[in-house]
Amino acid sequence: MKTIWNLGAATVALIAASAQAQDRTNADEDDDIVIVTGVFREQSIEKAPVAVTALNEDEIDRALPVSAADLLRNVPGVFVNSALGEIRNVVYSRGVSAGSTEAASGYFYVSLQEDGLPVSNVTFSNYGPDYFARPDLTLSSLEALRGGTATITGPNAPGGIFNYITKNGRTHEGTEVAFRYGLEGDGENPYYRGDFYHGGAIGDRDDLFYSVGGFYRSSDGARNPGYTLNEGGQIKGNLLWDYGEGELLFTAKYLNDRNGFFEFLPARNFNDPELVEGIDATDSFLPPASPHSWQNPSGGTSSWDGRDLVKSEQFSLSAKWDHEFSNGLSFSNSFRYSDSETDWNTGAVIFSLPITDPFVYILSNSFGFPGTFEFRNPSDGSLVAEVVSTTGFDHTLTQNNLPNQQILDGGVLTQVAFDPRHQVDEVMNQFTVSKEWERHAVTGGIFYSHADINRRFDGGGFGISPIADQPPLYDITLTLPGGGPTLDITSPEGWASLGDAISGGLVNDGTQEQISLFFGHNFSITDRLILDWGLRYEDISYEITNTVPAAAPNFGDPSEGGADGNPLTLFDNFPNVQLPPISTDRDYDYLSYSASLSYQWTDDILTYLRFSSGEKAPDFQTLIDLDTVDEADSLFVDPQEITQVELGIKWDHDYFNLALFPFWSELDNVTSPQLFTDGDGINYSPPPVGGTLTTWGVEVEADVFFTDYLTLTTALTLQTSESENFGLFEENTPSRDDDTFVPIPDGDADNIPNVLARSSLVYVATDRVSSFVTWNYIGDRPANRFNAFELPGFSTVDLGIIGQVTDKLTIRGDIKNALNNEDGVMSWAPSGGFVRSLDRQALTREAVAADPNQLFSVITAQPRAYFVTLNYSF
Q1: Which of 171, 282, 476, 687 counts the most CB atoms within 10 A of its CB?
Q2: What CA–CA distance (Å, rounded) separates 267 from 270?
Q3: Per-residue pLDDT at 1
Q4: pLDDT > 70? residue 13
């Protein structure tokens, strides 16, 4: 730890000492960067009293991002977990991080935007904006705001606003194509990608411009599941009319992409986590493609095919109108319509557990059946395991030919054919009007959004596979006592519980409507002293109808034969039925504010002090969780409260750019949902308990220009965070009424690293050859609120070289994670199988101390990858 803090101090000292470096030549000191994110009007980033970072095309290109979120690793104060792949990333800033170990809600506190409006203003479990955002050649720049004015300039997103700005034909004229070939998974798995962009004026006109661009990509991923893991792309285009006093910009986008994401791998040693013997960082535990169909609880036919992955599709139309009057009055109106859908065909809750665990039989609808269970390899029919049950409730492993038994005796993987579908239709509009006179500038406006939301699960089945790379699904049969008959627990494709597994038949229909009124005032008290303040009133309303599944009335009596009429095929004999729908609504309204006092010491040095206070309303998932009449009538979740204080110091020098942001952040009324199972096998959640997270830290952002040829760019965060007043419930007997409340001792906040660092050293060897090395570091962070153990800090290094073959042709080579650090843990889950593996907050220090080498699960940083890119400009 001391070494890391010394490293941080050394970095700051290096920046401060850089005044003796050579003159800056790769930036025009008269060409200030103008930002639009986090402010109510365009403003120079050097003089704006906000903590915003702007990335240009060169910085975006150098990052070679895995996902849209991956670019944010260049921003101090922002934690990014993109280890899962291109989707389901986790992003937060300044300790506003509750629930950040769960990728299902990775954008809860922040707003991911394209050209000033959210990609989607809706979030709930396993649905968010990063399913529909991909960086490509159409991306011009990225503006990243953390905290502060996000409380008044963002729609219910006090944690930050990340605005991805698109090229247009006026600012980017010409044609560019790029072709990329790579080998992911430490040089094993192929990657193919093509991007294009074309833009310019229409004919000889100087007032009408257009652009079009996009990408297509196909790859097997860093961990190859045996089928393509990412395939698809997007196309974007815009039309700009500049009529002198203003402009109109029309934009259209169509994205159609299929992506998988990686599952947890088994590990041991809480003191220094590492993958277990026999498992490699390039292994995939995703289920085989195994296409199949079944009768769903709604009476129709559903299907699942692992090769279809998570299909994300979005069509959007946007329009922006800016106009300036001659008297200092101006207005801007931004509109977007989007039709977004995700259709999942992938695995879920894939964890190790003994083959004798009751959940193997509960979830395969064979619990309570006595007899002999046989597990066979589908490729050759060989017997891999035999389990005998005398009563139907006891299970004894009598034959064991399972692989990798050094990991777990009798160990297998649970597999779920995860089959949710999400459909969201949204309309958004933001109108602002501004007026400037003498020493004042005011802006007022209104933001409105409406979304129609539908989600449904059809229950693609439950399976068992070996703990091995690209695992097959075992065929499972049960021979009843006395010599028969033999029941097929799984379908020919290897799935049990068709139409039942994981809430098959769950349907959520609802709406989300949001109206925000905002006002900002900039008052120049003197030429150097400026007061900046603003207010935002939010009104968010939800309506929902939840149709909840339940076991069929004949559950436990397979004599009717299920969908195929055959009582011996147990896999389709227990479909769910749908209970009467439950309708409810929730409304939230609150006022947020932010104010700063800034002083311009010289033309190059600005300081400011900002105070911000806001709230974060629960998202649509809160309504989905109201799945009983009692909960709908009585369970109300209050908004979380967020308070931040930040000091900004910006120094723009000929030899360096330096920005320091000491900050204090408090997040209050934080709750964590838990999932239990009662005696009837029904999942339920106990009432949540609220707590507080408090974070102190300093963000450092610096560009150092050592010589004409050598530049260092650094984003550094040093922070400490504490949690208090948290607690959880401990499940006792199968009854829902005797769960015990357990207070969690105050301690360090979970999943908040003490250090976040990213530094890139760029060397321009000649006019045509340059290279760079990028060092990334994530410091130690507690694994949960009990501080049961720490996820250790780790580094990765990226290398790149760029050669300009001709004035139009460029070739570059990249190595991501060049040192192939395979032990960097990004996410984890406890042992115990299926349900318990989802409850990370329940593991205690005492449990770790009692068995520090127990099995648990991790997701590590992606293995080394190699890329070659050809870029040609016309």
Answers
A1: 476
A2: 9
A3: 39
A4: no
Cis ω before 403 (30° cut-off from 0) = no
Tell me, what's the pLDDT at 484?
80
**For the chain, what is the mean pLDDT?**
91
pLDDT tens digit sequence for 509-542: 999 999 999 999 999 999 999 999 999 999 999 9
Q: Are strands 371-376 and 475-479 parallel, antiparallel or unpaired?
A: antiparallel
Q: Tokens 């949690």 belong to which residue?
A: 723
Q: 489-503, 596-610, 682-696: lowest mean pLDDT where?
A: 682-696
Tokens of 111: 């707003």
Cα 818–Cα 824–Cα 828 angle in degrees, nearest 5: 145
CB-based burial, 669-689: b 16+ in 10 Å, e otherwise: bbbbbbebbeeeeeebebebb
pLDDT of residue 681: 60
AA identity, residue 148: G
Query: What's the pLDDT band for 133 if we cut at 50, 70, 90?
Result: very high
Judging by beta carbons within 10 Å of its beta carbon (0-12, 13-18, 19+), is residue 31 exposed, middle or buried? Answer: exposed
> Poorest-confidence range of 25-34, 41-50, 163-172, 258-267?
25-34
What type of residue is 321?
A: W
The answer to whether the beta carbons of residues 96 and 667 sit under 8 Å apart is: yes
Q: Which residues pair with 214 in a beta bridge?
A: 196, 235
Amino acid at residue number 371:
G
Listing DSSP states for 99-164 in one string gives TTT-GGGTTSSEEEEETTEES-S--BTTB-GGGG----TTEEEEEEEESTTHHHHSSS-TTEEEEE
- Of 666, 874, 872, 767, nearest to 179 by C-alpha is 872
The Cα-based distances of 618 to 98, 157, 338, 636 in angstroms read: 12, 11, 22, 10
Q: At which residue do the structure tokens 């106009």 appear? A: 323
Q: Rounded to whole angstroms, how far apart are CA atoms 241 and 22? A: 43
This prediction's pTM: 0.92
Write out the DSSP string of 747-779: EEPTT--SEEEEEEEEEE-SSSEEEEEEEEEE-
Half-sphere exposure of 828 (CA within 13 A, CB side): 30
pLDDT, tens digit, for every residue of 459-490?
A: 899 999 999 999 999 999 999 998 889 999 99
**CA torsion through residues 98, 100, 104, 107, sign:** positive
8 A C-beta contact, residue 768 and residue 803: yes
Per-residue three-class SS string for 104-121: HHCCCCEEEEECCEECCC
Tokens read off for 684 = 């339920």
> 């990028």: which residue's tokens?
774
Are the C-beta atoms of 556 and 499 separated by less than 8 Å? no
Q: Which amino acid is at 602?
A: T
- What CA–CA distance (Å, rounded) separates 242 from 244? 6
Burial of 413 (0-12, 13-18, 19+ CB in 10 A): buried
The bridge status of strand 656-670 relative to strand 640-652 is: antiparallel
pLDDT band at 675 (very low <50, low <70, confident <90, very high): low
Which residues are 532's β-sheet partners? 522, 596
Res 454 pLDDT > 60: yes
Exposed e or buried b for every residue in 141-176, given b needs 16+ CB within 10 A? bbbbbbbbbbbbbbbbbbbbbbbbbbbbbbebeeeb
Tell whether the model's pLDDT for residue 508 goes beyond 50: yes
- For 631, residues 6+ apart whose C-beta sits below 8 A from its C-beta are 625
Supply 145's token pair. Answer: 């705001």
DSSP letter for each residue of 686-731: PPP--EEEEEEEEEEEEEEE-SSSEEEEEEEEEEEEEEES-EEEE-
How far is the C-alpha of 805 from the C-alpha of 336, rounded, in Å? 41
Q: What single-letter DSSP state applies at residue 871?
A: E
- pLDDT band at 501, cuts 50/70/90? low
